[in-house]
Amino acid sequence: MARIHDALYMAALAYGSTSGATQQDETINQHIFDQQLDQTELNEQAGAGPAHSIASDEVADVVNQQPDLKLVVISNRIAPFDPNKPQTGGLAAALEPVVQRSGAVWVGSSENRGDGAEVPLPLVKTGAGFAARLDLPAADHAGYYRGFSNSTLWPALHSLPDRMSVSEHDYEGYQRTNDFIAGAVFEVRDRDLLWVHDYHLLPLGARLHELGIDRPTGFFLHTPWPAPDMVEYVPNHRELMKATLKYDLIGFQTNQDLNNYSAYLRTHFGLKTKDGVVTTERGQTRLKKFPIGIDPKQFADYLAADLSAAEQEKVSSLLQNFEGSKFAIGVDRLDYTKGIDKRVEGFNQPLRTEPHSISLLQIAPSSRADVEQYQKYREEVESAINRVNAEHGTDRWSPIHYKNDSFSQAALARLYRAAHVGVVTPLRDGMNLVAKEYVAAQDPKDPGVLVLSKFAGAAEDFNENEALLVDPNHPEEIAAAISRATHMPPEERVTRWRPMMDKIESYTIHDWAADYISELDKSRVTVPADQFHHLGLGWTNEAQMPLYQNYTTALTAFNEVDPADAALKEAAYADVKLSFEALAAPLMHTQDRLWVLPARDSFA
Prior knowledge:
Blueprint lengths: L1 H15 L4 H26 L12 H7 L5 E4 L15 H13 L2 E10 L8 E4 L2 E9 H20 L10 H18 L7 E5 L6 H7 L6 E4 L7 H4 L5 H8 L4 E4 L2 H15 L3 E2 L2 E3 L4 E6 L6 H9 L4 H12 L6 E5 L8 H14 L5 E5 L8 H21 L7 E4 L5 H10 L2 E4 L8 H8 L8 E5 L14 E3 L4 H13 L2 H17 L2 H13 L26 H13 L5 H19 L2 E4 L2 E4 L8
Parallel strand pairs: 1-2, 1-5, 2-4, 5-6, 6-7, 7-10, 11-12, 11-14, 12-13, 14-15, 15-16
Antiparallel strand pairs: 3-4, 8-9, 9-10, 17-18
């Protein structure tokens, strides 16, 4: 605040003389402008790059437009960066092309565990970017990953409190692991933007802030965000939520997720969100929807790509089971949020009324196999499949073909293309890229039909005139949709498929990443000091200064008064002073930015 009040006194000196006040104002502003211009040139020579907003159609274009923009991506898991290896989840599939095309550094965990000692980031070149796989501390890993992340947060975020287990020890391990990751990221603190991903790292932004990292830091949630009453099941939920408000930008998959997050802030902290912005004592956090897409061009390449001999045999052997008949496909991790058990139950019903009418290929690679909840769920799914096959199968035909292993993207593309129905029925899901991959793999002249859970994020993109939307908790709805899809005429299938494909092509994974990076970069969009008159010499974001316009209006009016009219000049100066004090009172310098702050008891 002292700096702001010093600026007020400077302004008073500048306007104290009725003769030449305007000239002195211009002189001071020119000095500030020259000072800032010199600094900008120095930064560009040093590789820091100019401070301005960016926008592009693809991540590569972002980097081309601003080649010195250096991004750090941080997540628990890192993609394999090998098209012949299966992806291990939607997050990895989404971020792999971002890093390879943008030159980003991707920091995440390795398959190994360490002793928690600090070591240099192990950077490995991948495409235009780098991957740094950390050996997370062994002592805390079980509590961090299997415990708090996946036995507490994961079921809570998917609105399944009965699946939760809670341990204070797990929470402590979760926090210490975030501390360790923050310490590792400190090595790349001079890069321009930091983009943190998913629920494993909710408090990471706060840790980075505590270490003095002042670069714009954003967070993207790949899972759903539940209603406030569901978040309340999470131990220390208020502490976690406070930590998330250290981020400059928080991205969500859907409007419902964003609204649920805002509702928690309103319910527990009394914080209101206005135009997607929530203001706290730290500053401002922007909330925005960024629905993840896929790369349809790359998926077309997968369809045309050669498979290894072993995988070609694997795919051909599978497809031989469906020759001359229709089949549906489901591709999910073996996770209780995916609703596979309900899907199998739903699939059983049309087989009773129309025997042999359709088969199901269910691909479900194991997930978190060391977690008891997942072990039990696998048993439940496999028992359900065995019951259906025993009831409807014959020596020569099985209604459900269940594969518990992984497939490459190229192999999946072929299986999607051959399937008449894509069944994507999670109980809850952030987006579910399988739905979009299935659509992208279809033959435009003879597409299949997408059966989609209304609780998947993709259902906010694909409406009821496109996908067949169902409640995944009701097997009878799944059964009716599968039966309808099986008998749907070609004209209706094309009519439904075409707008979904148009949406996929119009907003790809590259658009998603570029939009997020561009929005995060706005955390350092600035008004040069010469345009900010005497309110300090630092940078500010004018959009975050609702009282700034009042001040500049009063200042303009003051400058337009005839210096010879002393009384009017004095009155105009009084207006300038009042508007300046109103502007300056709630401001504080934070990370070289100026913020509008609420009362300090917001978190009481």
